[in-house]
Write a structure and sequence with these properties.
globular; 30% helix; seven-stranded parallel β-sheet; 472 residues; single chain; 2 domains; alpha/beta; Dihydrodipicolinate Reductase, domain 2
Length: 472
């Protein structure tokens, strides 16, 4: 690692909206890898969490909970040409901030497309309207309508974000290992063609977080290694997944959206209530949660091949998340209370004593077996790399840094997704903060060890179909 390397010059000012676990994780990386001074940065946060870190760094801190009524007055005076809005908040509309940056000719990046408060759970809206699919379609429609302009990179953290780069690198690795001769794809259709040639039927964003704290979770408390409101919000959204063209069985509570790219479906249940079988090299087989994430939709969309307007190839893509053990207990308690979130909430960071975040993508369907490519970062490594971090926040911060550098180097690209960005550049910038970045083959399938101690209906001819994943 070369801590002194500067990836980009920062010509204007940086407004950071939100200063929770990810914002605090990012601040040291900004000074380390961008040509930027503390006087150029202003933090706008809804609470005092992290205010001391901001003051120690010489960065201006403004306490302001942004709302639909006050965000323009609070932010517009601080944004102009060559400035950058880094959105690390929850409950602040991403589209509203993107529109503001467009008017002010400022750059933009977020880690998740967020609505205003209630957007995830408003029962007056249809399930489809509360989905990441709908939020993504709205932002992409804005990008298409407005064309080139100040770069606005959406959903670029670890996942979504790095996950899209991992998929591309995994496809190239598998092509070499399988003897498939291919030059580096330059367009989405070429990446989709490569995935099709390799026989990829399903892609999991497969993550196991094993970080543990000396202070165990208490009753009535939600514990997490990153944003508690962020995870609760996406956990209460419907399960969403990119829907492969090979799928022969339709989920009983599945539905299509009826608009947009049609690359994904949703289930009429929260992601925090949906379990799915997956695999990582260190954890082995596990049953994670099918939590909605934008990469499940964007990767599936960008890996679609069409003939005469009809999709002829697309893999099934979804998140398979097994968070740290205290978070799993928090989810179970929230489910017991009919999805009413706990009042007490805690991010674990300094009190973590062991564990790692094993985060990557699992590509399935190749004759060589499953292939997992991703980051294995321990808490000890994260603490050596940068202050104010745990293994989870460090991986997200690496993705944010890479996305910011891409925006600064390409400032007139309009609305951009992680799948649109040069994955090699992203990995080059992020790699020093990802611990062990590896690719591992395995012989696991969702049928492994099934049918015991009770028999199950399974189609052994197609082990990748959604029917064979546990969704209860």
């Amino acid at each position: 690692m070369k801590p002194e390397i500067k990836h980009a010059h920062f010509p204007g000012n940086l407004v950071m909206v939100g200063f929770g676990s990810i914002g605090q994780a990012m601040l040291p990386l900004l000074f380390r890898h961008l040509e930027i001074r503390p006087q150029q940065i202003r933090i706008v946060a809804a609470n005092e969490d992290g205010a001391a870190i901001s003051r120690e760094s010489g960065v201006a801190f403004m306490l302001c909970a942004l709302t639909e009524q006050n965000y323009l007055a609070a932010l517009e005076p601080w944004l102009d040409k060559d400035d950058f809005l880094l959105n690390l908040s929850v409950d602040v509309s991403s589209l509203a901030l993107i529109e503001l940056c467009r008017r002010r000719d400022a750059l933009y990046l977020d880690t998740s497309i967020e609505p205003w408060p209630g957007g995830y759970t408003d029962s007056s809206k249809s399930v489809s309207q509360r989905s990441n699919y709908a939020l993504r379609e709205e932002v992409l429609a804005f990008g298409r309508a407005n064309g080139p302009g100040p770069t606005a990179i959406v959903t670029h953290g670890a996942n979504p974000g790095l996950a899209s780069a991992y998929v591309k690198q995994a496809l190239l690795d598998m092509a070499v290992d399988s003897g498939v001769v291919v030059k580096k794809p330059a367009r989405h259709e070429e990446w989709a063609g490569l995935a099709c040639r390799l026989g990829i039927k399903a892609i999991h964003i497969a993550e196991r977080d094993t970080q543990t704290s000396i202070r165990r979770r208490q009753r009535g408390e939600f514990v997490n290694t990153w944003s508690v409101p962020g995870f609760i919000g996406e956990g209460l959204q419907p399960s969403e997944l990119g829907w492969g063209t090979h799928e022969r069985h339709w989920p009983a509570d599945g539905a299509r959206h009826g608009f947009g790219c049609d690359a994904a479906i949703y289930l009429n249940r929260p992601g925090a209530a949906t379990r799915v079988r997956s695999w990582t090299p260190l954890e082995g087989s596990y049953q994670g949660f099918l939590i909605t994430h934008c990469e499940s939709i964007s990767i599936a969309d960008h890996l679609t091949l069409r003939e005469n307007g009809t999709a002829v190839y697309r893999p099934t893509v979804h998140y398979a998340y097994y968070p740290c053990d205290d978070t799993v207990l928090s989810l179970h308690e929230m489910a017991d209370k009919h999805w009413q979130p706990q009042r007490n909430r805690r991010i674990i960071r300094d009190e973590i004593v062991a564990g790692m975040d094993e985060l990557g993508v699992l590509l399935m369907g190749s004759a060589k077996g499953v292939y997992w490519y991703g980051s294995r970062l321990s808490i000890e490594q994260a603490r050596q790399l940068a202050p104010y971090n745990n293994a989870t926040s460090m991986q997200v911060a690496a993705g944010v840094l890479a996305g910011m550098v891409c925006a600064l180097r390409n400032p007139h690209a309009g609305v951009v997704e992680p799948d649109d960005i040069d994955h090699a550049l992203v990995l080059e910038i992020a790699k020093p903060y990802l611990g062990e970045l590896v690719g591992v083959y395995g012989d696991w399938t969702p049928l492994r060890d099934r049918g015991w101690p009770f028999s199950e209906e399974m189609d052994v001819d197609d082990p990748w179909q959604f029917k064979n994943m546990r969704v209860t």
